[in-house]
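Example (one chain per record):
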Amino acid sequence: IMLNQIGLLGGSMTIRFAFLLLCTFPAITSSQARGSSDAKAKAALAPLTKLVGQWDGEARVSLIPGPTPQVVRQHYDVTSGPGGTTLNLKGTGRTTTPPGKDSVVFQASATVFYDDALGKLRVRAKLAQGGDSVLAEVEQRPDTLIYGFPLQAGRIRFTIAYSNTDWHEVGQLILANGNAIPTVDMRLKKVK
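Predicted structure:
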């Protein structure tokens, strides 16, 4: 407006155009920032794309130390989210022995995403039974994903070693004194 008053811009059409341009500038820069964030997310998730597909196998689950682990038939569906900026995992475990053979004993879902503020991958995991969710820290190594979160008794940690065809996951409860109690040993094969 000041430029128009001193004769550098003429007419109300020019003022409207300048005003619209100034109003759209934040949207343009926001879109560019989002594009940059999406590119970072895709790059961070790229090594995990081997996990996309359907997986079946067996898991040995121990919720308390000592007794023989329960054997569960495990299935995971892993999909890439919109634009390849997230990885979504849905798991279902079913009993393998009577009584109640094939009953669902485990359901969970997780989303692996790039946390732009922290500049690293994170996992939001949720158990279907209780509806509780947890935000987990992630460590990425070649063909290995490690994630974990604190619990009252210590810390839970899951280590997934994977290839195009195999998924081996080990879960441990790490006690405050450093002792590790095995909770899960899961071996899956990609079926689709």
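Caption: The helical segments are 2-5, 11-45.
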